[in-house]
């Protein structure tokens, strides 16, 4: 059985300030760096065999903290990037509400958003899940794969891999900075949820 760990990056200044990041390339804050230092040894204890990461700096730097402990190379995949939030990127929730009240309310309810250049959830789910499934299929049975990625990307990919309706993503709750979702995979039973929001 393969273990796939979806590890959300450490905190950034935009996370702290309540700004939507999406695919804007924001670095880890000092708090984020400390979160990585605290979390990486716990993930190292799982004895990972494969490390993959979004190519955005905050995820890449998060994964670098683990790579230094387990002496493994990191493969970067742009498909593991966060959802593209279009015109919302860099704005706070009140700023978005003031300009796109109906669309933002739909997003908060987990419903489709069809304006402001926001990436469709279906496209997000498919691209992230495809990257993760390819990594699992390429790894030997019993591999432990740690994928450094982003909150919405991880949540929607989890639903896609488990075969859950897209509406279930909001029931998972937000994945906190430097927390992880653990999924198990085998060729007989397919995907199973093991844990969510592991510190």
TrEMBL record:
<dbReference type="Pfam" id="PF00300">
    <property type="entry name" value="His_Phos_1"/>
</dbReference>
<dbReference type="InterPro" id="IPR013078">
    <property type="entry name" value="His_Pase_superF_clade-1"/>
</dbReference>
<protein>
    <submittedName>
        <fullName>Histidine phosphatase family protein</fullName>
    </submittedName>
</protein>
<dbReference type="InterPro" id="IPR001345">
    <property type="entry name" value="PG/BPGM_mutase_AS"/>
</dbReference>
<dbReference type="InterPro" id="IPR050275">
    <property type="entry name" value="PGM_Phosphatase"/>
</dbReference>
<dbReference type="InterPro" id="IPR029033">
    <property type="entry name" value="His_PPase_superfam"/>
</dbReference>
């Amino acid at each position: 059985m393969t273990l796939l760990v979806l590890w959300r990056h450490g905190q950034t200044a935009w996370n702290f300030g309540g700004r939507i990041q999406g695919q804007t390339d924001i670095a880890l804050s000092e708090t984020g760096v400390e979160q990585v230092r605290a979390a990486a040894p716990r993930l190292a204890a799982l004895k990972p065999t494969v490390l993959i990461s979004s190519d955005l700096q905050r995820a890449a730097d998060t994964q670098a903290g683990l790579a230094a402990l387990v002496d493994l190379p990191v493969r970067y995949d742009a498909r593991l990037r966060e959802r593209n939030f279009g015109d919302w990127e860099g704005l706070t929730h009140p700023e978005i509400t003031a300009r796109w009240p109906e669309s933002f309310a739909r997003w908060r309810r987990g419903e489709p958003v069809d304006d402001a250049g926001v990436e469709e959830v279906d496209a997000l789910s498919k691209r992230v899940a495809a990257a993760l499934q390819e990594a699992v299929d390429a790894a030997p049975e019993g591999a432990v794969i740690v994928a450094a990625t982003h909150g919405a990307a991880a949540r929607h990919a989890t639903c896609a891999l488990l075969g859950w309706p897209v509406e279930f993503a909001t029931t998972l709750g937000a994945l906190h900075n430097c927390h992880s979702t653990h999924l198990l995979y085998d060729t007989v039973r397919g995907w199973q949820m093991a844990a969510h929001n592991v510190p």
